[in-house]
Amino acid sequence: MDTDVIVIGAGLAGLQCARRLQRNGQRVTVLEASDAVGGRVRTDLIDGFRCDRGFQVLNPAYPAVRDWIDVDALGLQQFGVGAVIRTATKTTTLAHPLRHPQHALATLGSRHTPVSDLLAFARWLAPTLRQPATGPRPAQDATLHESFEAAGLTGALRRDVLDTFLAGVLADSTGQSSANYVRLLVRWFALGAPGLPREGMQALPEQLASWLLEPVRLNTPARDLQHTADGVQVSTEAGTLRARAAVLAVGPQDLSELTDQPALPTHGLTTWWFRAPELPQAGPFLMLDASRRGGGPAGPIWNTAVISQAAPSYAPEGQHLIQATTLLDRPDGLAEEATVRRDLERLYQSSTADWELLTHHIVEHTLPVQHPPLREASPQRVGERALIAGDHRDHGSIQGALTSGDQAGQSVTRLLAG
Ligand SMILES: Cc1cc2nc3c(=O)[nH]c(=O)nc-3n(C[C@H](O)[C@H](O)[C@H](O)COP(=O)(O)OP(=O)(O)OC[C@H]3O[C@@H](n4cnc5c(N)ncnc54)[C@H](O)[C@@H]3O)c2cc1C
Predict the structure, then answer these.
(1) What whole-number distance in Å separates Cα of residue 183 and Cα of residue 137?
(2) Which of the listed residues 169, 259, 365, 398 should we mutate to test ligand 1's pocket, taking the one with most ligand atoms within 8 A of CB?
(3) Cα(230)–Cα(65) distance, rounded to whole angstroms?
(4) Which domains does the chain have, with CATH numbers?
(5) Hey, whose CA ends up nearest to atom 30 of ligand 1?
(6) Segment Disordered: which positions (predicted)?
């Protein structure tokens, strides 16, 4: 045998799986098709700006992050807990009243937060707050939109804030995602203050990789997985590796390459990254557009933020980094740069003539489609000695990917011991 376990894929799930196996005393070899670790969590360094491959944030309240990540070493730069709401006539900052007391009056007195909606939102979230953060999931589930209707959440808070915010988080504007999945994410948003690592989001998988005794083999796609009498055999261009077991920690879209499982559907988004010499009017908050009649964005942008205001390390001193996100399930998800700029000018009420486009990421496979009911998290067996891990085996998030990887590591250890 060349090693005890081969892990295919060095995204968060594969890396945490390898780490768990290593801690359990197994020898592990990780194969990664790409030129760096991280999978969907990568950062491009462009002229001193850190542009994550698709805007995303790290929530330190995730139990998996609290347990397995050295968040202090990442130097998390936190966003404000709230959002700036842009309507056709004005902008309003809505923020967590305890974390940002200076915005408490504006938040509680805003027309976007009627008392009836705040009560309905509390009703909607309450079942999750009473549950343990991890463990068994409620049997009852519904789509997000059905659950909002059932809770009576039908007013301005939903129309101007929640629907738009959540569509950006889920890369899904249809409202068909599992309500229990969204409740989990909202609960962690309420408990934590998400932010960005000093060196960019890729610092998170790099930290996990740095703890592995054997370096991840980059640029080494697994081409084939065979089951043998005493384990598995994985072919790569560099040769064939034999091991007692394997974990496939590839993304949902790649499952069919190495197994007889179908590829799973995903939601996608795009992120535009601009540099600006002057600071646009905004705080360290996400901006949401509620200018369309009846709610929601009037243009292609579902959220935007001056990233460097929350995370100064993302831009060289004296310059500013702005992200704008569009959704691929919308007809204007692939809007041209000129359209995106026009939208940004409306949102920030400022010209973008001196803004320079740094890069534009089209992330087709952002998150697995997660319709109700939300399943219990579990690695899936494929053959005697191979398991599947990844966010699609738990729920689409950093928490889901890390937990799934960890569970797969524990399962393989038990399998080999048995
Ligand atoms: C734009 C965007 C925004 C997001 N926002 C958030 C957020 O704000 N908060 C949050 O919690 N989550 C967010 N997520 C989700 C989170 O990043 C993912 O759930 C998580 O990173 C998935 O990790 P994974 O290991 O399951 O899969 P992946 O990251 O997809 O890893 C799979 C790995 O397998 C490799 N691979 C595939 N085939 C092979 C092969 N044959 N051989 C070798 N290697 C192979 C791939 O190259 C990849 O590195 C976001 C994701 C994106 C893309």
Answers:
(1) 11
(2) 398
(3) 35
(4) 3-42+202-265+371-417 (3.50.50.60), 46-112+185-198+266-368 (3.90.660.20)
(5) 251
(6) 395-418
